[in-house]
Write a structure and sequence with these properties.
The protein is α/β, with parallel strands linked by helices. The protein contains twelve helices and 16 strands. The protein folds into two domains: about 350 residues, Alkaline Phosphatase, subunit A (3-Layer(aba) Sandwich), CATH 3.40.720.10; about 70 residues, Arylsulfatase, C-terminal domain.
Length: about 475
Amino acid sequence: MDRNKFKSIAGMLTLGAGLLKFSGCSTAPVSHSSSDSPPNIILMLADDMGYGDLGCYGQKIIQTPNIDRMARNGIRFTQFYAGSTVCAPSRSCLLTGLHTGHANTRGNGKVSILPDPGEKIIARYLKDAGYITAMIGKSSVSCVNLDDDFPRKKGFDYSFGFLSHWEAHDYFPPELYRNGEKIVYPNNTRHEGDAYSQQLFMDDAMRFLENNRDKRFFLHLSFQIPHASLYAPEEWKAKYRGMWEEVPETTQKHYRNEPEPRATYAAMVSRLDADVGAVLDKLVELGIADNTLVLFSSDNGTMREGGYDYEWFDSNGPLKGGKRDMYEGGIRTPLVAMWPRKIKPGTTTDHISAFWDFLPTACDAAGTPAPEGIDGISFLPTLIGSGDQKKHDYLYWEFHQGGKSGRVKQAVREGDWKAVRLNAETSPDAPVELYNLKEDIGETNDLATAQPEIAERLSQLMRKAHQPGKAFKMPYETAEGESVQGK
């Protein structure tokens, strides 16, 4: 089936949110129903979902009616950025308010297993402000499980889910952790079983909302979807089956082999969308929607993993590249927010912001001061259309794939200009690529030769923004982290 034909068929699909089984118990009420009181805050985070995977960002094939509803009833950001191009450093930026030139975690895998126990994250600040704090799903506090109760030690009153990102690559976990206690699922074998992680997380999230309806809470609902492995329940795959020719994936050794990878990826995104809708509907049912700020984003750009290729559905939209790239497709991500009576419906903003802005924004909304010395700037004025919206002088990213001996990439954005440096571990002062994003969102025309002064200025910003990390140093730094070539 040709692409235009199956786009037409996709447009006729109607995807329901489905019914979820909810349970919960009552709690002592703490009234905060006034429209002027600090809101509940829910941050829902997709894993490896691309900028172009949502209907409200131009997707024509995959159906996302609930997140599109959020955009119609709230605000949509068009120039919002993840903290990094892979999950562990990106989530670190989200929780700490620091960009990857300053954050402790700047890469995935073994190099990211050194979280600083004393490093305060947004959960601690909101907890100190009187919020009940929870994280459900894939852990955002560490890439590898060093401590079964680490989320609570970092400030989450309640946690349930994966503590290792590696284990979160599959949807039938042999075990999960609730508040430091191991929960075993004996019939699960990573790729199949009777306990589907996405449903477990949704059931748990619904219980949390019911149990805390009369309290002020912060819920970080950290989904796995649509990260590989590719898996979706049959009822969701059936909505897309037959729309195009499938090439079965049979070569995976770590991820699950999937006979219908295209239908499965589309189904994963739509299932995620339905669960977002279930959260929104639950807030209405509980009578707390009007005083709840809900945000939805993705932890980095779209992937080529587990048998999926982001070109199938234009998952990166008009952007170049995807996950692990410093081009826009790797770091620009959707952000949709809804807060009835506070955020004007149907708003779109081109305010330039990033993951490290979430912490000061949440503090601002909660009425508690943000910490000194972070990189983030609150975008609450943009959300509510009131107040003085401060802007960044520049945004900065560095990505260490494999630590200081691995591949290092850098990027910086200043206004409409963006510079990218590859192979920074061997050539930390090599010429940068330079793009004007206003005129060239696809980063096709390198202007470094035509605009040498701008290229040099942004190159110097890269040097300025980077500070030595425990496991993340540049070649021009000594073992102690001191620069041998100056700043």
